[in-house]
Design brief:
- With 140 residues, this protein is of the alpha+beta class.
- It has helices spanning 25-41, 129-137, and strands at residues 3-10, 47-49, 55-57, 60-67, 76-86, 90-99, 102-112, 114-116, 123-124.
- The chain has a single domain (3-137), classed as Roll (Thiol Ester Dehydrase, Chain A).
- The protein contains 2 helices and 9 strands.
- The protein has a 5-stranded antiparallel β-sheet. The protein has a 4-stranded antiparallel β-sheet with strand order 2-3-8-9, with no helix packed on it.
- The longest helix has 17 residues, at 25-41.
- The N and C termini lie close together (10 Å).
- The mean pLDDT is 95.
């Protein structure tokens, strides 16, 4: 199952370095922001409060980016996020970053479904069925 989501943003001045090029760390942030927008679009959140006071959340297991060409202040960047794998406990996303109709970077991010209980260590859990159903509703 591949689920696609797209969002567009404009590069802010604070996201650039002394050369006027977007700092590499922004791509991980933009990938995460696209993930949050995608989850909201299917009725989920990156932090879901549970009736028992715990939370279900999606900490990162891995994140990587490869850069192909520079992006500058006020460029419009489109992030094309694909949910490429839904495992028993994890999600894998791939991202393409585009500016001026050119792919400027590619990324991958893997998250794990966890129960968060205050004062206790994170506990990975199977993705709840209602979350799976919501994720599947986002498929094209």
């Amino acid at each position: 199952m591949t689920i696609k989501f797209e969002t567009t943003r404009r590069v802010e001045f604070c996201e650039t370095d002394m050369a006027g090029i977007v700092h590499f760390s922004c791509f991980a942030l933009w990938m995460e922001q696209a993930e949050h927008e995608f989850l909201r679009s299917v009725g989920l959140s990156v932090v879901d409060n549970q009736p028992d006071g715990s939370k279900i959340s999606w900490p990162r297991l891995a994140c990587a980016c490869e850069f192909h060409s520079p992006v500058r202040f006020e460029d419009e960047v489109t992030v094309r996020l694909e949910l490429t794998r839904v495992g028993e406990k994890s999600l894998t996303y791939e991202a393409g970053f585009f500016a001026h109709e050119t792919q400027v970077a590619t990324g991958v991010m893997k998250t794990v479904c966890c129960r968060v209980i205050p004062g206790e260590p994170l506990q990975s859990i199977f993705i709840p069925l209602e979350f799976r159903a919501a994720l599947e509703s986002g498929s094209n």
